[in-house]
Amino acid sequence: MPERWEAVRDALLDNRGLKLMALLLAVLTYYAVRTETGYEVDYEVPVQVKMERGIAILEQNPMAVRVRFRGSQEDLLRLDVRKLKAVVQPSAGDTESAEAEIPVRAGDIDGMQHVRPLRIEPPMVKLVFDREIGTIASVAKPKIVGTPLVGKAEVEFEPQSVRIRGPKRRLDELKRDGQVVVQTEPVDVDGRVKSFTKQIRVVPPGDTWVSQIEPSTVTAKVSIVSATLTRQWKDVPVLALSGPGAQSDVLFEPPAVSVTLEGSAEQLDRLTQNAMTVFVDCVALDQTGAYQLPVAVHIVDAPELRISVEPDSVKVVFGRRTP
Length: 323
What we know:
Layout: H1 2-36, E1 39-49, E2 55-61, E3 64-71, H2 73-78, E4 85-88, H3 92-95, E5 99-103, E6 109-110, E7 116-121, E8 124-139, E9 144-145, E10 152-158, E11 161-167, H4 168-174, E12 180-184, E13 187-188, E14 196-203, E15 213-214, E16 217-225, E17 228-237, E18 239-241, E19 248-253, E20 256-264, H5 265-269, E21 276-281, E22 290-294, E23 296-299, E24 306-310, E25 313-320
Parallel strand pairs: 1-4, 8-12, 9-13, 18-21
Antiparallel strand pairs: 1-3, 2-8, 3-7, 4-6, 5-8, 8-11, 10-16, 11-15, 12-14, 14-16, 17-20, 19-25, 20-24, 21-23, 22-25
């Protein structure tokens, strides 16, 4: 009998050792997990309010909440702050009154993975409601910022109007001469040398605007226009463009004209008079008559230049060709 009790005692002692070891392992695991996932970071998260049709938000305070996230260092570094948002939706009972306070809960935070929100400050969003209406708003011409490397920038855009929905009181405040005008983001042309096209955002009319603008962007076509100069050549001889086998001399009155070119400084600087041909087309003419014909100018490798001739036409007279 004593031997049996000794065996039971030894078994109990062995179990106590196992239990102690298991407890020690559990404590070590807890602290290892806590260390791995114990990093915390705070971010400003915008609050998006989902509203039913016909109800708009006149005021919202705050527009963003501060959220403390906890997770592993790796997961927190992978967190894309741009995708974070808190999405709340008032109940039907909330919108029946003029204003309401809506709680922002952990489950309302979108855009996070493998991390969890610990604290949200402030925990409530105050909303003031109004009747939602829609109207057509004109889009103001986009402002240009910066300076192109050469020339100047000119902008065209489309569409020039958008449909805007929002609180009736706010839209009434925005009307000037019976019309709502909205702005766009500026167009940066700093250092540009070529024309370009860009989608730019239509800016909501006010920091607290939370309703819809459709479309939300416009297409801006920006032209980089080089500064233009003029250069004149005087007494440029007029030549005759004749067909093969022409038997008569061609005389012009006056025999020379002035040619004025307008274009960029770069184009004009590399242009010489040898690259310019001033002529009258005489190919199909009856060589027994006299004509008043327009003067044409051909310039090699400069099709963008604007050309003017003085006079722009000359008298053409055919004479006997001397042997």
